[in-house]
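TA notes, week 10

Several of you asked for a full example with nothing omitted. So below is the full record: structure tokens for the whole chain, then the designed sequence directly under it. When grading your own attempts, check the secondary structure regions first.
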């Protein structure tokens, strides 16, 4: 083939009987409430088309979307399915997800306090329970070809940060005392968005999709609140998955972590890299090392390798975002699955699909879709 001839990234075929599970920070969130829903109510939004085409090219069976604004009744999810996913783009086959789950998140929820200490209790931004300009911004949505076991769904949006044993609560370095008052801690939830346990019925076997999108460990003042919160959000996820979180209470008041022997897949943009970045006490490495988690397989891409990782310790092929970090994860339980393959959708510059991940002008998202092919085992 001539050197300048465009190529096509051929994703490995999914093995027969395997389950393709993916996470994608689609960056579809907008600045104003209702703006994303309006964009998805037609078919002309360029970004939504590109995001949909990426999903169609990879064709996961189960997909977590991050930075997807929450709308009551999952209205935005319905519009995205109808107007974008179920229409083929640029020759890609339409994809249908019969089942979906979405729920409220903490972003943009008024705390009633001046949490960032800028002198104004604004109710949004740094004064919201989770950073955001309106309730539901930067939400999540789970799409699935398989039924959701609704009666067993658990959410942990209301769990308070102070109720985690050994919580890494921020301190005021000048005053030498806690950054947050007792009154503020009585309303400050741990999850900046939420933590979901969404059981799926896959041919009579239950797989728990554990979805999370912790706050970035950045944009901090001297109190280091975001880095500490990111750590503890990931610890909450890890404690829940490996059965050590007896302290955890869900939004229905039911205590305890995931039960022993349950199959799960952790999905989400965790905003933490195990080798690089600004994380507090390296929670990503801690999660990968948990006994109940299979972190042995690292999804990679040729585009990430080509993009490069100057100044980084990690393998650029494993990066999942344009800021050169591995922050998006699909992690199965250590039992109940074998990993048949996986990857990061990041075609190289010579590929005709590179237009979907270009950086100038920016394409659909600054993150890349990450997927694993899993074979369920007895």
């Amino acid at each position: 083939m001539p050197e300048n001839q465009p190529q096509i990234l051929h994703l490995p075929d999914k093995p027969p009987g395997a389950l393709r599970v993916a996470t994608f920070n689609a960056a579809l969130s907008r600045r104003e409430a209702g703006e994303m829903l309006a964009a998805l109510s037609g078919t002309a939004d360029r970004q939504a088309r590109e995001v949909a085409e990426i999903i169609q090219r990879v064709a996961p069976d189960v997909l977590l979307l991050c930075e997807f604004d929450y709308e009551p009744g999952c209205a935005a999810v319905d519009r995205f399915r109808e107007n974008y996913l179920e229409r083929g783009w640029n020759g890609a086959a339409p994809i249908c997800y019969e089942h979906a789950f979405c729920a409220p998140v903490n972003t943009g929820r008024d705390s009633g306090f001046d949490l960032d200490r800028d002198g104004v209790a604004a109710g949004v931004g740094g004064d919201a329970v989770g950073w955001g300009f309106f309730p539901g911004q930067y939400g999540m949505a789970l799409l699935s070809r398989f039924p959701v076991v609704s009666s067993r769904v658990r959410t942990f949006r209301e769990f308070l940060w102070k109720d985690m044993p050994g919580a890494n609560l921020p301190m005021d370095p000048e005053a030498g005392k806690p950054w947050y008052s007792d009154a503020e801690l009585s309303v400050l939830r741990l999850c900046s968005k939420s933590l979901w346990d969404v059981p799926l019925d896959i041919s009579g076997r239950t797989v728990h999709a554990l979805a999370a999108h912790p706050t970035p460990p950045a944009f901090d003042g001297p109190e280091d609140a975001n880095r500490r919160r990111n750590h503890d959000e990931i610890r909450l996820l890890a404690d829940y998955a490996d059965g050590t979180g007896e302290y955890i209470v869900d939004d229905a008041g039911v205590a305890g972590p995931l039960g022993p022997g349950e199959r799960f897949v952790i999905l989400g943009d965790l905003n933490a890299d195990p080798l690089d970045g600004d994380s507090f006490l390296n929670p990503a490495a801690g999660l990968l090392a948990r006994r109940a988690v299979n972190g042995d397989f690292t999804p990679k891409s040729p585009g990430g390798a080509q993009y490069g990782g100057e100044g980084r310790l990690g393998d650029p092929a494993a990066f999942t975002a344009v800021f050169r970090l591995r922050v998006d994860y699909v992690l199965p339980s250590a039992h109940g699955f074998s990993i048949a393959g996986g990857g990061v959708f990041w075609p190289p510059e010579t590929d005709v699909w590179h237009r979907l991940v270009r950086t100038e002008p920016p394409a659909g998202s600054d993150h890349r879709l990450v997927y694993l092919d899993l074979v369920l085992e007895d």
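The two ends are 45 Å apart (CA to CA). Use that as a sanity check on your answer.
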